[in-house]
Amino acid sequence: MKKNVDFLTYFLGLITGALLMTLALIALDSTYEDGQIDAINGIIKYELVKQPDNTTSWRYIKEK
Predict the structure, then answer these.
(1) 13 near 20, Cβ under 8 Å?
(2) Residue 24 is inside which H or E element, if any?
(3) Cα–Cα distances in Å, from 25 out to 9, 30, 45?
(4) Residues 39, 62: one domain?
(5) What's the chain's average pLDDT?
(6) pLDDT score at 14
(7) Residues 40 and 62 in one domain
(8) Percent of the chain at pLDDT above 70?
């Protein structure tokens, strides 16, 4: 009986640790920044502008 309780405690601790680690990684490593989400949803608009030296950059389009 003691071995079963020890195994169950170890297994539950392992699962809890893995779950907490996964949640922490999700919370700390967000894929999108707030501005990117707004741009995707159409709240903020950008356009790609070619510079005189042939490089490109994003320019913010002001809302009306």
Answers:
(1) no
(2) helix 2-28
(3) 24, 8, 30
(4) yes
(5) 81
(6) 94
(7) yes
(8) 84
Rounded to whole angstroms, the Cα distance separating 49 from 58 reads 6
- Here the tokens at position 31 are 């894929």
Q: What separation in angstroms does the CA of 27 have from each of 22, 39, 40?
A: 9, 21, 20
- C-alpha to C-alpha distances, 41 to 28, 37, 52, nearest whole angstrom: 22, 6, 30
Distance CA 58, CA 47 (A): 6
Tens of pLDDT, residues 27-41: 776 566 666 777 777
36 & 48 share domain: yes
Q: Which residue has the higher pLDDT, 62 or 9?
A: 9
Does residue 37 share a domain with residue 17? no
